[in-house]
Amino acid sequence: MDKINHVQVNTPSYAQDGKFHVRLTQGYFQNLRRMTSWPLIVLFFLVVWLEWEGTPLLLFSFEQRQILFFGIQLSWHDLPLLAGVMIAGASLLFFAAVAWGRVWCGFACPQSIWTWIFIRIEDWIEGSAQQRSRREKRVLTPKDIFRRVAKHLLWIGVASLTAITFTGYFIPIRDLVSLEVFQSSTTLGWLVIMATLTYLNAGLVREKICLHACPYSRFQAVMFDQHTRTVTYDVERGEPRGKRRQAEALKQPIGDCVDCGICVQVCPTGIDIREGLQAACIDCAACVDACDTVMQTLDRPKGLIRFASEAQLQKQPSPMIRLRLLGYGCVMLIAMGAVLFGFAAKESLRVDIARDRGPLFMQLDEHTFCNLYNVKVERFHPDLRNVSIRLTEPNVFELFGPTKLDLTDQNAQWVAYRVCSNQISSPRSEVGFLVEGHGMSRQLNTSFFTRSLDFQNN
User: Which helix (H) or strand (E) holds 418?
Assistant: First the structure.
């Protein structure tokens, strides 16, 4: 849409040596952002340690080929359920984007959250944005070097803790934090890579991810319409910008914007919201809080920069409920309903049967024929430990192989079985395998051959 401009990639005018320092601000939306992001941070670092009946609450185990999802055991065959969860989440993201723009990016995106954490550390160790900017212009003193080293060490510490926690969702965290991790070069290498990426993204790259790497900024224009409420500068009220005393002395008209530039200094992506909505804007509302503080100081109405739609700025009706928003809402509800149904209907006991790759059948005598099968049983319920295997027609077929299986070992193996019968005369019939355990049962039928179909036709 016309409202969205090209991404601003030039360094802000207040930056020194090609970099800029984000100025921290306070206000309603910054408090709301912290109320949203801090619970997510706590959940990220906490859930990995929680267990349910001796098993991790959330674990994507490649070794055991299963997913532990808040007390529910899923197999890799249930990955479509996770795909459904992602579709439902994407629909919720699109729903929010149509209504309020990129609020996910500004309030809940991990890239933004970790960037703000690193900025907080930087502000705590090296001082405010103005102090850091002045320091860039002079030769660093030993004290400055000490502060910078301390900052990077804290960044590395946070990045390492993040990498360990993230990896703990794939390897049990208690095994991960033991000294055994240093015996695995693969795991250690993965931790180093994850920590390095976190350090670079949140500490050094920062806004470049939002400017150049984030795909969401590229297709947001498809979802936005004239009724989407985004962080917007009220041009009619703010222009022409300038100092009021100078304008009054020159008898020139003046808007509410005093051109202080604070809205640019607090922006984590370094854009000037007064130039119009841009793809790099993540709707974090830092400029809203900063501008409201200035307006309040100057005894002027707040809201020069605010969440508003294009229609609202043009003094037109701007309904919140509209067809596009309802469409995304319906898709979100349908996806969530499908996911809930999938979880309710998922299998706790899975059985796979495959014929042996050898001969189609074996003939022991004139009337006795045998077929070879491989059976694999997988459990996805914590109380299911042992199962029994038998045939549905024991009077017709005879089963040779283990009738009891211990499923304690999560790495399910194929078990060889032989089924024989001297009562079948047709070339092909069905034989049923019945697997039972802990009140659960699963029956699978497969083919039983006695002679070649071509031979029978001849």
Answer: strand 415-421
Q: Which has the minimum average pLDDT: 2-11, 136-145, 165-174, 434-443?
A: 2-11
- The three-class DSSP label of residue 77 is helix
- Per-residue pLDDT reduced to its tens digit, 368-423: 999 999 999 988 777 788 899 999 999 999 999 999 998 877 667 889 999 999 88
pLDDT category of residue 181 using cuts at 50, 70 and 90? low
Query: Residues 20-77: pLDDT tens digits?
Result: 889 999 999 999 999 999 999 999 999 999 988 778 889 988 777 778 888 777 777 7
List of domains in the chain? 28-219+333-341 (no CATH), 230-313 (no CATH), 349-457 (2.60.40.10)
Q: What is the 3-state secondary structure (H, E, C) of the chain?
A: CCCCECCCCCCCCCCECCECCCCCCCCHHHHHHHHHHHHHHHHHHHHCCCEECCEECEEEECCCCEEEECCEEEEHHHHHHHHHHHHHHHHHHHHHHHHHCCHHHHHCCHHHHHHHHHHHHHHHHHCCHHHHHHHHCCCCCHHHHHHHHHHHHHHHHHHHHHHHHHHCCCCCHHHHCCHHHHHCHHHHHHHHHHHHHHHHHHHHHCHHHHHHHCCHHHHHHHHCCCCCCEEEECHHHHCCCCCHHHHHHHCCCCCCCCCCCHHHHCCCCCCCHHHCCECCCCCCCHHHHHHHHHHHHCCCCCCCEEEECHHHHCCCCCCCCCHHHHHHHHHHHHHHHHHHHHHHCCCCEEEEEEECCCCCCEECCCCCEEEEEEEEEEECCCCCCEEEEEECCCCCCEEECCCEEECCCCCCCCEEEEEEECCCCCCEEEEEEEEEECCEEEEEEEEEECCCHHHHHC
pTM of the predicted structure, to 2 decimals: 0.79
- Gap between the Cα atoms of 441 and 434, Å rounded: 7
**Encoded amino acid at 134, one letter:** R
